Amino acid sequence: MSVRVVNEMKRVKVRGDRDTKSYRGDGSADSPDGTQSIHERGLSRLLSQPIILAIAGAALLWAALPPLDWWPLAWIAAVPWLILIDSPKTWTRRQYIQWGIVGFFFWMAALHWLRLPHWATSFGWVALSFYLGWYLSAFIGLSRIGVRLLRLPLNVVAATVWAGLEVVRAHLLTGFTMASLSHTQYRWISLLQIADLGGAYAVSWVIMFETSCLYLAAKRFREIWFARTAGQGVVPQPRMKMDSLAQTVRQTILRAAPPLIVGSLVLGTTLLYGQWRLSQFKTGQVNRSVRVALIQGSEDIRLEDSEEKRERIHRHYLDLAFQAARSHRDLDLMVWPETVYGGFLIDHDDSPAVPATWADSDMTPERFREQIGKAREHSQRSLETLAQHLRCPLLIGVETVSYTSQGPRIFNSAAYVALCEKINASQGGRERFSDGTDVKEANEESGKKGDSTGQRYCYFGRYDKMHLVMFGEYVPFADVIPLLQRLTPLSTSTTPGRTPVAFPVGSLLLSPNICYESVIPHLIRNQILTLRAQGQEPDILLNLTNDGWFWGSSELDMHLICGVFRALETRKPFLIAANTGFSAHIGPDGRIYQQGPRRDVAILVADVTRSPLRSLYLDYGIIPNTLLVSFIVLLVIAKCLSASRTFQRKITFRRSA
After folding, report:
1. pLDDT over threshold 90, residue 501
2. Neighbour order of strands in the sheet with 592-595
3. Are residues 209 and 301 in the same domain?
4. Could you tell me the residue range of the domain that residue 59 belongs to?
5. Residues 127, 255: one domain?
6. Cβ-count burial of 3 within 10 angstroms (0-12 exposed, 13-18 middle, 19+ buried)?
7. Based on the domain organization, do 303 and 364 belong to the same domain?
8. Left (φ > 0), alpha (ψ -120 to 50) or beta: where does 179 sit?
9. Is the pLDDT score of 424 beyond 80?
10. 399-413: per-residue pLDDT in tens?
């Protein structure tokens, strides 16, 4: 065979190889001269610097959240990350570390307000951002396992992994759900209604699913049209003809339309469900209601604030409370935010220990119990007197000092004061209030003071915050290693409460929660289920919070959004009484009916009714949460098994070699 014939055969083989490679699995198409198109070269450059794609996605998601609140960007924010997931390239440990660093800076920007309460809280800001930053690397890595190893659809994998990681984030290290993907859409009411099926995680799942469908459609469109312009691959193009253009359009519709159709079906079904639930709410309204005044003062808070500042805040809220009482005579309840009451609520158990600081005094245990008993009675009487002057039941954020056999304990509490119940004594006895006070004597005393109503207010109990903020309210292991407490600006650690409480307000039951408890979905859900088991399922949820620590920053928006989702997930009205904002009345449909101003005073009077709707997520929320996390666990197991098989093959190959 001549050299000329051999060379011609080689040229034919090379031409055939170009034809078969003109359309590759990653969507790239070679140009007629064997080089990549301009578009493909640009995509290759991006993939050669994957950190740019990671930064682009983080920037888009940050802009979709408060303070910018450009919510439409949330629907495309994950596209750069999906490119990284779908890429045929093999990413190294270095890339995953880079993405973790990008995630770190994203959370630093999103949670910038954590630095405001005190210079020492900046350490918590950095630590929390560092921890949360690795969720971006986990999202990309886990999704690649599902797409590339298990060959599962990208849209299903990405949506399920993202939502599953949000469930993990809500539980791990005490839990944190602010700045979730679903939170960007808190004003799209019909979209949010599926939260009563799968919580905020279901909304995040839908958003990520739609983003993935858009990405897949765009990818297929790009594959077809850039292959056409390259002149090879999917659409042959000897010349620019109308039939060639029509064929390209048909190819585009056949290949790019399916992801759009699937995405439209999912989004359309979600919105139809939302409209159906909203129509049920409109036709099922309950007339019975209670009138609640939410007092919003505006006093910025710092850890180093003095007792004088504490007293000033108390007077500030007194002025607002009396203003509300004069303007609204028919209130069923008035609410003060978290820890704005100037005094302390004193309590003790059956055998309070004498504090170590009193060891040098002549205080005996018996005398100490007597003194603490008087202090407890005086602190409760102070609250009752305040309600008596306002002529209104009160729920007040107050710090409780409880003297126990193990020493003093501090609680972050909500104290409830309401009208005393009259108890008719039998056998000719005198009528008394529930606190033991003689009704006739109390009325005579009220008449001397110019109060002709004959009403008396009693302290009915308190709710102690159950879920505390690490390094904000307590220092881990400080009870074992006291030195840890002295290394922080916290003078003492708060003790968590043990059980939720429901207070009767008018004809309804109200359950309070405090501060960041509204950030944790399963915490609120478990509190309601606990009360339901006791026959006291609440009709209204109420959050008392003091966001004056954050000086009117975007933290106020993020905290408010959490309240929107807790209302939707439980199908119960959700009220917020917040210092510096945002106080709010949120309906069980997720609508914000009333909202206080940012860093300003307000008195919101809400007429609240029992919701006619029930929530499947409240009853069975553990099921979707478990399914989402189980999917992540299965991906991890699949990766471990694959790595094990690869390792065994390497060992076998080395032995055979």
Report:
1. yes
2. 503-505, 508-514, 540-546, 574-579, 584-586, 592-595
3. no
4. 21-279+632-643
5. yes
6. exposed
7. yes
8. left
9. no
10. 999 999 888 999 999
Interatomic CA distance for residues 614 and 609, integer angstroms: 14
Encode pLDDT of 428-473 as tens digits. Answer: 455 554 555 555 555 555 454 445 556 899 999 999 999 999 878 8
CA 482 remoteness from chain centre: 32
Please confirm whether the linkage preceding 67 is cis (ω < 30° from 0): yes
Average pLDDT, the chain: 86
Task: For residue 582, say if its preceding peptide bond is cis, omega within 30 degrees of 0.
Answer: yes
- The residue-averaged pLDDT of 507-517 equals 97
Strands 540-546 vs 508-514: parallel, antiparallel or unpaired: parallel
Residue 187 — φ and ψ, nearest 5°? -100, -5
pLDDT score for 402:
95
Residue 576, φ and ψ in degrees, nearest 5: -130, 125
Residues 253 and 351 in one domain: no
More confident residue, 552 or 18: 552
β-bridge pairing 344-348 and 394-404: parallel
Q: Please, which residues bridge with residue 293 across strands?
A: 334, 605
Here the tokens at position 566 are: 């807790």
Q: Does residue 520 share a domain with residue 499?
A: yes
Same domain (yes/no): 310, 258? no
Q: Rounded CA gap, 589 and 275, in Å?
A: 11
- In terms of Cα–Cα distance, which of 410, 408, 386 is closest to 318? 386
Question: Any alpha helices (H) in 111-178, and if so which ranges?
Answer: 121-144, 154-171
380 within some domain: yes
Q: Specify the amino acid at residue 583.
A: S
Q: How far apart are CA 209 and CA 556, in angstroms?
A: 29
pLDDT value for 19: 40
d(CA 338, CA 295) in angstroms, rounded, equals 11
